[in-house]
Design a protein that fits this description.
With 955 residues, the chain is α+β, with helices and mostly antiparallel strands.
Length: 955
């Protein structure tokens, strides 16, 4: 049901009624035991009651249906309107709180501007303290004025708390919160989804509203965050309207989670998915349209309504997909329908009682003749077949009585006929039992069996002529195997019927169905015999039953009745079919006897040693035996031929292996002589190696001495290197000190030049002073004397400056003189040190000369030891060459031996392959256990021989 429609409930009710009606219409429902046990009087009363109540029930049902639809639509519309009202109230509430938080943000911005304006002369720290105090007071006042907020907080752009209202709980850093980031990114206020938090010492959900604090330029300087517990939201929303008893109200967030329940005692915990309780919520919530529907939950069948929150904020803060879901028990929601149904049910019950009373009165008069007929039928069922019903008039009940009387007469006649048929069937079964025990059938003699079958059939069915006909090998005619004529008490055989003469008859036989010709002259299958066969013998009726053997029709049993036409009964046809089956067994036995005799003859030939003979193969069981025997003879012939060929190959291989063994023995003797020579050469190499070892030891000792001497020389060289480094360092320092002396001399020259310049300036000042003095002597005006005095003062000042410069230069020159004295002393000390280093360097050179002399002597000894080692190595080389030559001879002999061994191996492998081939052929036969004990059955022996041959080749 979407919107205000009630189609969902209507569809559900129709589905339930259809399922109930379908269940009632099942066949088994019409066979209830209590219906069968009811009498006709009770059934008539029930039927009359149904027809009396049915119109009332139909009218009441239709009226209830229309009333139910109207009431359902009205109730659904009311539930949707209630959910939409709550949703609208929630939307307005959030908009109001959003405006309040934005107002707080603007006031906060004004506080920032006011402090900056009125306290400009204060330091930044003092301004911050004043701002924090004023903001704390403002936020505390707002939290006190608006009771829905649990607290306000002001945060910087990094999410750190600046100040919060008194009494509010401290919140963690807000930077990573989605609503905080939304304000930073968009510059507009934002409302968060319900977030699980701690409130008043316990976990609860809360909604956060954030708004930016902006400067006059529009730049965001801070963010105000207000916290509203969802409990306050529920009280503010649900407390404004009148809620219905028995209806549960849920607030759902954008993720489909319940964040507030109201008017429900056993509600699901906050934060649970509403779809788990209301399965259809996922489909309805995706459409975002108000809707009401029926659904079955763990709490039973309930009427649910859904209304999304139409959120139209003042500023762009994002879409909140919140919604309101209500749930009302069907018993409470649809109580008016229940009352209406009870009223209609009571009226229907009263109507049924009145109809039942009237039906009982009418039924007693109408069904009295039926009760009489029922009593008569019960007597007939107990075997009282002489019972009859008195009938009067021509109405339906009189016709029913007449039919019952005729039915009783026919049942009496059928029982008498059944008794006669039973006696005949017992006689036929007795005859079939005797025929199944006849000697011809047991021994597989088809002719003897046919003789017994024709005579037994004629006697059982009282037929004048009974014959058995079989197809020839070409299947173009049938030959009479046996004909029995009861009139003459004689048997005959040998007559033939050709297919070209009687095509219709042969085609009918191929259909593999009995030919039942009550009138043989007119039957389509037998009319061809009329002139030439039937009329001369006085035959008017024929019964032909096909005989099957080996999956096809092998012949036919023909029963010929002389005299008036005869109607063949089903029991007679069944009897002749049974005789045909017995004849099929007899034919199979006869063929089996022939094939077994042939097999015995073939076996006798094989016993005489003739393996070229073969048994005839047919499509019967003996044919499979013959085919297996033929394959066995073929396998035996192949095995014997392989045995002969293998024996010849083994004989030739044995001769060749003997010759190879002699050659291998000769090569082995030659290899032994070569090995003795190699041993002598090896002894010579050993002695030369020992002498070489002594020479190498002597050379090693000399090299160790050289190493010691070289290490001493290396130490002397290292000492010399260090002295040279020190000498070079001292020389570098002397050069640097000489450079410093040069700089000092340059500075002295510069000082002399400065003093000359100062002297010239002093002369100029003295000249200026004399000129000023002369001009002063000529002046009479006191003011002019003041001017002259100032000029003298300026000249004196300049003279003082020159004197000061001269004094500074003298001081600097004195300092430089002291430094020159220090440098000269250092240069003298460095020169003395260099003298000592030069003496040490001379001693190191002399020591190195001695070391190099020792190295030269030791090197001579090493050269002599090397010459001795070279001589011994030459002797070892000569012996090794001789040894290599001997080993080459041994290798050639080994190659020839290996070649011969491989030839022997190949011959052995050929013999082994022949043996395996022969063995695989012989394995076709299963030998006695006594013979198997003399055969090598372990395959590991062959593997051992192969490994031995491989080892010989490697040697």
């Amino acid at each position: 049901m979407k919107g205000t429609s009630g189609t969902a409930r209507e569809d559900k009710q129709l589905t339930f009624e259809w399922a109930r009606l379908t269940q009632k219409l099942q066949p088994n429902n019409f066979r209830l035991p209590f219906v069968k046990s009811l009498g006709i009087r009770a059934k008539v009363i029930a039927l009359a009651t149904i027809f009396g109540v049915l119109p009332v029930l139909v009218v009441g049902g239709v009226a209830y249906r229309f009333a139910d639809d109207a009431i359902t639509k009205q109730i659904s519309s009311e539930k949707i309107a209630e959910a939409e009202q709550l949703s609208s109230q929630l939307s307005r509430f959030l908009q109001d709180q959003l405006v309040n938080v934005q107002t707080v943000a603007r006031v906060t911005g004004d506080v920032f501007e006011e402090v900056k304006t009125h306290h400009a002369e204060d330091s930044a720290k003092e301004q911050q303290a004043i701002t924090k105090d004023e903001l704390e007071d403002q936020l505390t006042d707002f939290a006190r004025d608006y009771s829905v907020y649990s607290g306000f907080g002001l945060y910087d752009l990094q999410g750190k708390e600046i100040v919060r209202s008194l009494g509010s709980e401290k919140e963690p850093n807000q930077k990573n919160q989605p609503y905080f980031q939304q304000v930073l990114n968009t510059g507009f206020a934002a409302i968060s989804e319900p977030i699980e938090t701690n409130f008043a010492g316990y976990d609860a959900f809360a909604v956060y509203i954030a708004a930016p604090v902006k400067q006059m330029s529009g730049k965001i300087v801070a963010i105000v965050v207000a916290k509203i517990p969802v409990e306050f939201v529920g009280k503010a929303i649900f407390g404004t309207i009148s809620l219905h008893k028995g209806t549960a109200y849920h607030m759902i967030n954008s993720s489909g989670q319940v964040f507030q329940n109201f008017n429900e005692t056993d509600s699901d915990p906050l934060g649970s998915k509403i779809a788990a309780e209301v399965p259809r919520f996922s489909q309805v919530g995706a459409q975002r349209q108000s809707e009401a529907w029926l659904d079955t939950t763990d709490k039973g069948e309930q009427l649910h309504s859904y209304a999304p929150m139409k959120y139209t904020p003042i500023e762009k803060v994002g879409e909140l997909n919140w919604s309101i879901v209500t749930a009302t028990d069907v018993a409470i929601a649809f109580a008016p329908q229940k009352q209406l149904l009870q009223t209609i049910s009571l009226g229907t019950l009263l109507t049924a009682v009145v109809a039942a009373v009237l039906a009982a009165i009418l039924a007693n008069r109408a069904i009295r003749p039926l009760l009489v007929a029922t009593a008569a039928v019960e007597k007939l069922s107990r075997g009282e077949l002489d019972t009859r019903i008195e009938t009067q008039g021509d109405d339906e009940l009189a016709v029913l009585g007449s039919n019952i009387n005729r039915m009783a007469e026919r049942i009496h006649n059928l029982l008498e006929r059944q008794s006669q048929n039973t006696e005949l069937l017992m006689h036929q079964n007795h005859m079939l039992t005797n025929l199944a025990r006849c000697d011809g059938l047991i021994e597989g003699n088809a002719k003897a069996a046919a003789r017994a079958f024709t005579q037994g059939t004629s006697e059982t069915l009282a037929v004048a002529r009974v014959s058995i006909w079989l197809y020839n090998s070409n299947r173009d005619r049938v030959v009479c195997l046996n004909l029995y004529e009861s009139n003459f008490q004689q048997h005959s055989e040998g007559r033939e019927l050709k297919a070209v003469d009687f095509p219709a008859y042969f085609e009918a036989l191929e259909l593999d169905r009995p030919i039942v010709a009550d009138d043989a002259h007119t039957n389509p299958a037998t009319w061809e015999f009329s002139a030439s066969y039937l009329m001369p013998l006085g035959i008017n009726s024929m019964l032909n039953v096909p005989i099957r053997s080996a999956g096809r029709i092998a012949g036919v049993i023909c029963c010929e009745h002389i005299g008036e036409t005869r109607q063949w009964q089903a029991g007679e046809i069944s009897f002749v079919s049974s005789v045909a089956n017995l004849m099929s067994l007899a034919l199979e036995g006869d063929i089996l006897q022939q094939e077994v005799g042939h097999l015995l003859q073939v076996v006798s030939t094989v016993e005489d040693g003739d393996l070229t003979t073969r048994a005839d193969v047919s499509d019967r069981t003996t044919g499979l035996v013959a085919d297996t025997f033929n394959r066995l003879l073929e396998q035996l012939g192949e095995v014997l031929s392989q045995v002969l060929s293998t024996a010849q190959s083994v004989s030739a291989g044995s001769t060749a292996l003997g010759k190879l063994a002699q050659t291998v023995a000769t090569n082995a003797q030659e290899q032994a002589q070569e090995v003795t020579q190699v041993q002598k050469l090896t002894e010579q190499v050993k002695q030369s190696a020992q002498s070489s070892t002594l020479a190498v030891a002597l050379a090693n000792k000399s090299l160790l001495d050289v190493r010691s001497v070289v290490e001493q020389g290396q130490e002397a060289i290292d000492t010399m290197t260090q002295g040279i480094d020190v000498l070079q360092g001292g020389t570098n320092r002397i050069v640097q000190q000489m450079k410093a002396l040069g700089e000092f001399v340059g500075m002295a020259d510069q000082f002399v030049q400065d003093q000359s310049h100062i002297a010239s300036l002093t002369q100029v000042l003295a000249l200026n002073a004399s000129l000023v003095a002369a001009r002063a002597s000529e002046q009479r005006d006191p003011r002019q004397f003041l001017v002259v005095a100032r000029e003298f003062e300026a000249i004196a000042s300049q003279v003082s400056n020159l004197a000061q410069q001269t004094n500074d230069g003298l001081v600097s020159l004195q300092q430089r003189t002291d430094q020159i004295h220090t440098v000269v002393s250092a240069v003298d000390a460095e020169i003395q040190n260099l003298g000592g280093l030069v003496s040490g360097f001379t001693a190191s050179v002399q020591q190195s000369d001695r070391v190099f002399g020792d190295v030269s002597a030791t090197t001579g000894q090493v050269v002599q030891a090397g010459e001795a080692v070279a001589q011994f190595n030459q002797e070892i080389l000569n012996a090794a060459q001789a040894t290599a030559s001997a080993i080459q001879d041994i290798a050639e002999l080994a190659n020839r031996t290996a070649l011969l061994t491989r030839n022997a191996e190949q011959r052995s492998e050929g013999m082994e392959n022949l043996s395996r081939s022969l063995l695989s052929s012989i394995q076709f036969f299963r030998l006695p256990v006594a013979l198997l004990g003399t055969l090598p059955t372990d395959p590991s022996s062959a593997d051992a021989r192969s490994e031995a041959r491989a080892e010989v080749i490697q040697l």
